[in-house]
Amino acid sequence: MRISAFLILYFCLSSLIACRQTTTIAPVLHQAETFMSESPDSALLLLEAIQSPEKQSAEDYATWCLLLTQARDKNYLEHTSDSVINIAIDYFEHTNNHSRYATSLYYKGRVLQSLNERENAIKVYLRALDIAKEGTDYSLLFLITSQIGHLYAYLPLVKQTLSAYQDSYKYAVLDKDSSSIAVAYAYIGRAYGLQEDWSHAISSYQEAIKIAEKIRDKAILRLGLNELASIYVRTRQLELASACLHYVEKMEDIHSDKTRIYLSIGNMYRIWSKYDKAEKYLNKALQADNIYTKRRVYQSFYYLFEEQGKYEKAIEYNNKFWKYTDSISSLKTQEMILDITAKYENEKLLNINSQLRWKQKQRMLFFVILFLIFSGCVYGLVMNFHRVLLEKNRRMLSIKRKLGIYSRELEKGKKLILKNEEKIRYLNDLIKEDKSKQEQLENERKNILLKNEKIKKTNEKLCIKINNLECSLDLKGKDIEKYQTKLKKKEACPNILLRIKQDLSELSNEDWDELFVMVDVMCNCFSKRLREKHPMLTNDDLKFCCLAKLNFSILDIAVLMNIQKSTVSKRKQRIIKHINDPNITNVEKLDDYIAHF
């Protein structure tokens, strides 16, 4: 009863450990998505704090991959690979959640755009646009069409650019989002600028500025004024350009970086031939921390002094311009090498992680099934040991009963001998007294002697039987002690391998049976497959192969199989003959064959 309770408790605990479930991260994902628009940095912190997201459900893991890519994009972090967003795409592509699928495709486009794979990015954006059109997420449709317009503008495909930006305006209106409508007007102005349709460009920027002022959105207002100023400069409406740029200058906070606006104002005055003011603002722009801005400032100084005929200063600033150009090229090369290395390592880790997740799921299911089989086998072996022990106890009790019967018969024989000896003495006395009866008494005496001889022989046989029974009883007692010791060891340590390491000695038949079961469970039915493939192998050969499979040394194998150490090599040669495989020609190849079978 105590052993059965132990087995049940062991099975339950192991099952609970094997089948434990991780806590869902769905609430954290929802919270991160809530923070995404207003506080993307907080959303990123929440997502990066989640440990081992790949252990979650497929949906939660895919959502985590999408939100992480979105958070990195909104925090303007550089993307190094599309492996993470591909996990989200692979999952949502096979679900009915078209919004998630379209969003995943959009952010893959953003990743590819960051990696300068513009043609692939356009293909992905167009696919995202087709999927998003099936729903009513106008905000997402605005983002997709805007990015398509940006890529067309870069190529440049001016007609396609204007069409894409007009679509973004249409979706912004449907979304009823004033900020998006203002940005869309600015984008349309940019498209008209590429076509050099200055009147439409100016009117589009003015609409963007008007809406931005109404909703008090400084970022959009700054965008519209800067780009409108560039249009005015190109059309030589320098006073209007100056008004726009000085408006932006006044808008900037005290602590904000104004160097870019100073550079724009300086260039405007240079084009206007107001060189003193141009130099003043360009000197202010030189305070920039950004290396790219500084390079543009030095280039503007070069043009400024060249236009004035101050060639010595022009050469000085031209040299500075090329110095910064070389620094930027070196920096880009370093960044490119680091980027390639990061991409490779990220791809490598993600591929390994994906393979490990798949193998882990398969291995978990496999080991749960194997554990159930192994637990049943262990339970059966323990019950078999109990049955054998009870049978031996019954046999010992039977031997004890027979021993008691034989002992009583021996005592009776001894008493009978004593009685007969007394009778002989009495008869001898009678012979002396009565010679006439001598012959009769002599015959009677001989008969008694014969009977005594028979009784002695019977007693000798009984003594031999008693000695044999005592020896058998002693052996059975030792045997029972061994079984009890083994049973206690099995109860304390059900694993046969641990028991062998604790007590290295010759294995019994029951130990071999349990070892075969353990090897078959651990090594995918090793002994059964080996016996089926090589039927010529004997039972001793299979025992040897199992020990070799478990990496026991030659000395350990000799002890466990109760053979000489020198016999182990001969045993290996015999196994090679029984396997009869032309590829296995020596002991090393046999060991390698057994290890990988």
What is the structure about, briefly put?
It contains 25 helices and no strands.
Short descriptors:
Serine Threonine Protein Phosphatase 5, Tetratricopeptide repeat; 25 helices; 0% strand
Give the topology:
Layout: H1 2-18, H2 26-35, H3 40-48, H4 58-74, H5 83-92, H6 98-114, H7 118-132, H8 138-154, H9 158-175, H10 178-194, H11 198-215, H12 218-234, H13 238-251, H14 259-271, H15 275-285, H16 291-308, H17 311-433, H18 438-492, H19 496-502, H20 509-522, H21 526-533, H22 539-549, H23 554-561, H24 565-579, H25 587-596
Descriptive account of the structure:
The chain is an all-alpha fold. Among the domains are: 23-134, Serine Threonine Protein Phosphatase 5, Tetratricopeptide repeat (Alpha Horseshoe); 136-215, Alpha Horseshoe (Serine Threonine Protein Phosphatase 5, Tetratricopeptide repeat), CATH 1.25.40.10; 396-494; 499-596, no CATH class. The chain contains 25 helices and no strands. It has helices at 2-18, 26-35, 40-48, 58-74, 83-92, 98-114, 118-132, 138-154, 158-175, 178-194, 198-215, 218-234, 238-251, 259-271, 275-285, 291-308, 311-433, 438-492, 496-502, 509-522, 526-533, 539-549, 554-561, 565-579, 587-596. The longest helix has 123 residues, at 311-433. It is rod-shaped and about 180 Å long. The chain starts with a helix and ends with a helix.
